[in-house]
What does this fold into?
Amino acid sequence: MKIRNYPLPGIALIFILLLTACGGNTNSSQQAASSTGPIDSVQSVAPNSSASAATGETRKFTDSKSRQVEIPVNPQKIVYIGSDPGDLLALDVKPVGATLSVIASQVVYPDLLKGIEDVGYPAALEKVLSLTPDLIIFSDWDESALESLSEIAPTVVIGENDTYTRLRQIADLLGKQDIAEQKITEYETKAANVKKQLMLDLKPGETATVFLQLGKTLYVMGHQGISVSLYDMLGFAPPPKVQELINQDELFSEISEEILPSYAGEEIFILGDEAEETSSALNQLLGSAIWKSIPAVKNGHTYAADSKWNFDDIITRTRLLEELPKLMAKGS
It folds into this structure.
């Protein structure tokens, strides 16, 4: 992923909200019931609880950068660096530490983050070291600390792929393949039921677009975040201009209000956070003549949601299944 450098921590929130659970690469133009219980049941990994950990048994694992990393067969103290801890938690594994300082208040599963030490964002190496991890899972756009982290513990890079690919890669890493497949099967079963409940009766090629307002900046989403559920699960199609972004592996793009209509689909989902600046900008947008001129708006096919749904880990996507009927019933 190629991205220009930006000051932190302000831009960190924007990128984490936008790059959550995303697949593919981006570039500088895009600034912008498991075997042990239900999907929300997460078990802490207790240190020194296995023979392999005690004996130091290891194996080779090839990560997303084609690096062969020697990892513990049964890691006991995992630190997660990235914006999708839901990928790990879905496998009933709770890391001892993770980069939570920005996303803890932005995800739909804060209940599952209890007991996880925040290592900061960017990750503070001293904090990571103090947790004495035996494995670090790295899934972040900023790879500047990768070498330093690798000196603390074996560090495996997880690619910014689609939901199932990421989940399966981590499952392979941790020996949780059966749980991953069960989570996927459970999700698809629930998704099929929700589709029946919604009775969408989509026309072939019916389009939908996701716009995200963060502060004063407006983004259009490609194939990432909540768009994954709209396109892959519900069966909407991206409008031509959004499809262009997807074809160019652009996960999102900053746009101006003036060109917003050219990206608008027959259904529009508009996301925003609770920040005062965002609320003010959204109110201005929704009251503008440009917004009111869009056919989807005129037809009452717009839906407003919190930006916390702009993640595509399987925990968020599963909880979104419960939210979608309520969300789409509130179309304006």
Observations:
- The CA atoms of residues 301 and 310 lie 19 Å apart.
- Residues 177-198 form the longest helix (22 residues).
- The chain has two domains: 33-186, 200-329.
